């Protein structure tokens, strides 16, 4: 048996790709199907959900520690970029957005947030666009909040402020002919 590549301690914040930021609340040993398993018990407060992940599967499911400061800066810089809206069908774009969100990669999530953000002077989002935008923003805000030790609404406001400033700059570029 190889040495464990990933090791999390009780109290650590971790990112589980499909669910976002959770906290390791305990390490358990359980016998399942006659085998002794060591499990991380993760708590996701927002969803009021508890998840048990075998320690030897943590890496293969993509569980990771919070992003580095460098990755966080890169994600926040991504928010300031010009939105990229592809002209493909919405259902295809929606699948791509969901895949980026579920990847757990902070920069990919920031791309989704940037691309789906609508400033007050822009056309209204469809219901499904708004749902994906809110999900991605929440996922980004939870990791930002855990890293900066603030609450989620504060982190979310910081993200929206960056987006509003970027939108103001990008909309100045669009001078009517």
Automatic annotation (TrEMBL):
Span of domain CarD-like/TRCF RNAP-interacting: 7-117
InterPro entries the record matches: CarD-like/TRCF_RID, CarD-like/TRCF_RID_sf, CarD-like_C, CarD-like_regulator, CarD_C
Superkingdom field: Bacteria
UniProt xrefs under Pfam families: CarD_C, CarD_TRCF_RID
Record-linked SUPFAM superfamilies: CarD-like
First and last residue of the signal peptide: none
A biological-process GO annotation: rRNA transcription
The protein's name in its UniProt record: CarD family transcriptional regulator
Origin species: Sphingomonas alpina
């Amino acid at each position: 048996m190889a040495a464990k590549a990933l090791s999390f301690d009780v109290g650590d914040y971790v990112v589980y790709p499909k669910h976002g930021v959770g906290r390791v609340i305990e390490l358990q040993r359980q016998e399942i199907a006659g085998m002794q398993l060591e499990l991380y018990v993760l708590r996701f407060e927002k969803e009021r959900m508890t998840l048990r992940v075998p320690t030897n599967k943590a890496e293969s499911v993509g569980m990771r520690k919070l992003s580095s400061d460098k990755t966080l800066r890169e994600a926040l810089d991504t928010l300031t970029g010009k939105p990229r809206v592809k002209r493909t069908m919405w259902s295809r774009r929606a699948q791509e957005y969901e895949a980026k969100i579920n990847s757990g990669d902070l920069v990919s999530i920031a791309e989704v947030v940037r691309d789906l953000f609508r400033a007050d002077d822009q056309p209204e989002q469809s219901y499904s666009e708004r749902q994906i935008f809110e999900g991605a923003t929440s996922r980004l805000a939870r990791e930002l909040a855990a890293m900066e030790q603030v609450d989620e609404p504060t982190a979310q406001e910081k993200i929206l402020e960056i987006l509003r400033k970027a939108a103001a700059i990008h909309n100045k570029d669009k001078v009517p002919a």
